[in-house]
Amino acid sequence: MSARPDAGHIAYLAVNGAIITFLLAPIAIITVFALNPTPYISFPPVGISLRWFEKFFSSPEFMGALWLSLQVAVVVLVLSMVIGGLCALALARGNIPGSRVLTAFFMSPLMLPAILTGLALFQLYLLLDIGRPVWGLIMGHTLVAVPYVLRTTLAVLHNFDRRIEEAAAVHGASPARVFFEVTLPLIRPGVFAGGIFAFIVSFDQFPISLFLVMPQGETLPVVLFNYMKFDLDGAIAAASMVSILMAVSVVVILEKVIGLKSYVKL
Amino acid sequence: MDQSASSPASIGLDAVSKSYDGRVRAVDAVSLDVKPGEFFSLLGPSGCGKTTTLRMIAGFETVDTGRIRVGDRDVTDVPVHKRDMGMVFQSYALFPHRTVAENVAFGLRMRKVPKAEIEERVRAALALVALTGFEDRRPGQLSGGQQQRVALARAIVIRPPVLLCDEPLGALDRKLRQQMQFELKQLQKELGVTLVFVTHDQEEALAMSDRIAVMNAGRIEQIGTPTEIYDRPRTRFVADFIGEINLIERPGGKALAVRPEKIVLGAPGAVLDGTIDSASFLGGQTLYRVALSDGRQMLVKETNAGERPVRSVGDKVGLAWAAADGVELEA
Amino acid sequence: MTTIKPDRRSILKAGAAGAALAALGAPHIANAQAATLKITTWGGKWGEIMKGDLLPAFEREFKCTVSADQAFPFLPKLQASPRGNPIYDVLHANSNEQWKAVEFGIVEPKVDPKNVPNLKDVYPYAINDKIAGVSIFTSGIGLGYRTDKGLGKPTSWKDLADPKLAGQRGGYLIPVNSLGQAHLMMLGQIYGSGMQDLDAAYKALEALKPIKLFDFTGQMEKALLSAEVTMGVIHDSGVYRYEGTPEPVDFALPSEGVLALEQVLTVTPGSKVKELAYAYIDYMLRPDVQKKLAEAVWYSPSNTKVQLDAKYDAKLFNTPEKVARLIQPDWKWYNARKDAIDLRVTRILRG
């Protein structure tokens, strides 16, 4: 009998190992591809070179797209935190009739295939004859990013002890001060956690961008997709590596600067 | 201690009512007067309206009808943050993102007290609750008892004329609770603050209060000192809610109430006769259940004196009490 | 081109997010004065030449700006835009897509030689009734193969069925790739009664299994380079571009004929700058423009007057005799049956 927990433990480790391998294997392959000097994936790798990174970083096309993607993602991050945070507060606190229906409504961009959202926005913009301005792209991204912030903020608000706000009020804080001194700092981990999702959703956004980008104003995923049709080489892998590192560093920076550790007991 | 600088205020509630759903009255025409510096408890089972009453005094809930007065000021329509009160919550409600010192300083900061003075007063308040040295900790790093002391310091540091406590000791274990009861009472005496204390624990209310209002179903059943409430309950509800009591039904729906410890056991042939059904040894006392000949049961508490042995089950006894110890209930 | 540039520059300069937002709204009105020609074009090396050289020269000559969209998918975007104010003036696409566009009524089926004088110099295949619009270039679809695997140079489409190539041959996901679709029709031609003999084609396709399938020709290229595939269906330009590199790959023209993969331009009926659109097509047919692109990406030029350098002259389809080897699929016929074919081939290739 004493062998049983061991066998269970081994199975447990094996399953976890398999899951981690499954999650990380694509990244490992991308890494090999990015560092391999040949313009195709060869296994085993024939050497290590940074030529694809060089190509990526020296291409004005890629760099422009990377910059645009970053800037759009930052604006989307800010917008979706403000909109998502305020929506969550209104839905959780506002005593709004039908707030459940409204919550579902605000979450609905997640239910819809993003490609439809992209196409619909594209047609709307064309019908309104406003072209495809970058703010239109940002709006599209924000639309699908807000639900993430909404969800994480609602989760924090759900576990929020409102007595803490009452304690602030009774000891002399006006409603505005209660918000800034207590409510905001306490929901901040939720808002920022959602913000990280929003950033990544925007930075990696493809289906919506596909329709909404302007010629010469294409985001990185769109440029990569189109590049792949004509030149499938290691620059794609290098670009993917850079994207992954970018996303990871955003998470790390936000964690360090703002601190995602929740004060709220969840 | 200069915490006592502000003078305690009286509190008056005049026929205050509150309904959440427009039908059931959570608080039904409650009137009471709390004297300056008094330790006043609102006591009752959950749902009796005591917490709602406290929340209306604090300003978290609006009143439907009636007025609330603090000192000479009608605060009925004054928003929470302008009522100038201190409050301690059952869940402590400390600001988890701030240090102990910042928590305590909060009310002072809101009142725009100069920095140096804030520092001084926070130090004094923490000393008062024996938490010197904990200034830089976060609430999450403290025990429940310590957190409640911080909450207390945060409330008293502003020298409020009125301190409200919503079951502040409810989350603490029994031993800690008894100690905190004592400390809170001491502190209240020291500061001379008017304190309104909500509790469902009758022992706690009896031990700490100057006066108690016993509430039931949104109404006040009786207001009085602990002794009055205990010795001379006015209604069945109060008699039953506070401690153990024997009710002897009288014709006309009235009843006579006698506390178990007021009953003297003797030889059969007294006011009532019965047989001992069970005996529970409580240390200093023994609690007997006595079955009367007509089937009713009476509780009797007898102090254990060295020379008298504990009575045995099945012993025949007679029950008697002084006329003054029998309370005629009004309802 | 230059219409858009200020956009990006302003974004790049505006560091703060808010500033970026504010700056992005304006530029659309800013250049409304100069006529703008909206086109689609390819990326890659082709795109580099276009954006780096040919389009700026066109803008200078015709005093206009060109907005060139390289982001697929072109057809859905054009389809979703209002007919009276289409998102493109000139659509550059492969032949089969152009036929789809004609069917939707979102491009003009023919280009009038009156508007495009250079049409008088093109090979007939570029404007015949197998083509909607004008084909400015073509590639030849044949067999790409590795020279280091002991294979002889393939001579027939049938060589792809060699049992030795099991699992080593490459094809396409037919529903999404026009090379795959053209190859399917070719199978009908070789194993059956003609390009429209689908039953023979299905049978032949079945016999090619196991076969590696790709979405894009670029993937086929890399699969050949990495030896994942020993022989595969591919266009000549996808192999010739490694000419002069040590890569052991070559291209074979099957004796039964080479499938044409045309680069076709059409004009949208709702275009507000039609003259400019025709001028652009005419410009793309100029011998010097054709030469530049042909030699950059190994596409065979449509204009008979183009003089290619010897290296290109040897391989590209630039004489009446060589052009005669090109087989042009009937895309109108194919597109009309596409859904049924897609279903069938998906079943064949999955099973």
Summed up:
The complex is a heterotrimer of chains A (266), B (331) and C (351). Chain A has helices spanning 3-35, 51-58, 60-93, 99-107, 114-127, 134-158, 162-170, 175-203, 207-212, 220-230, 234-257.
Describe the structure.
The complex is a heterotrimer of chains A (266), B (331) and C (351). Chain A has 266 residues and is mostly helical. Chain A has two domains: 1-49, no CATH class; 51-264, MetI-like fold. Chain A is built from eleven helices and no strands. Chain A has helices spanning 3-35, 51-58, 60-93, 99-107, 114-127, 134-158, 162-170, 175-203, 207-212, 220-230, 234-257. By secondary structure, chain B is α+β, with helices and mostly antiparallel strands. Chain B contains eight helices and 18 strands. Chain B has helices at residues 50-58, 100-110, 115-128, 144-156, 174-191, 202-208, 226-231, 236-241; strands spanning 11-19, 25-34, 39-43, 65-70, 73-74, 86-89, 162-166, 194-199, 211-216, 219-224, 246-249, 255-258, 264-266, 272-281, 285-292, 297-303, 316-320, 327-328. In chain B, the strands form four sheets. In chain B, strands 6-7-8-3-9-10 form a six-stranded mixed sheet, with helices on both faces. Chain B has a five-stranded antiparallel sheet with strand order 13-17-14-15-16, with no helix packed on it. In chain B, a hairpin with a 2-residue loop joins strand 9 and strand 10. The longest helix of chain B has 18 residues, at 174-191. The mean pLDDT of chain B is 89. Chain C has two domains: 34-138 and 261-320, 3-Layer(aba) Sandwich (D-Maltodextrin-Binding Protein, domain 2), CATH 3.40.190; 140-260 and 331-350, D-Maltodextrin-Binding Protein, domain 2 (3-Layer(aba) Sandwich), CATH 3.40.190.10. In chain C, the strands form two sheets. In chain C, strands 3, 4, 5, 6, 7, 8, 9, 10 and 11 form a nine-stranded mixed sheet that branches. A two-stranded parallel ribbon of chain C has the order 1-2. Chains in contact: A-B, A-C. The A-C interface holds A 38-42, 64, 67-68, 71, 74-75, 78, 119, 122-123, 126-127, 129-131, 133-135, 138, 210-211, 213-218, 222-223, 225-233 and C 1, 4-5, 7-8, 11-12, 14, 17, 20-21, 24-25, 28, 38, 42-47, 67-73, 76-77, 80-82, 85, 87, 216, 218-219, 221-223, 225-226.
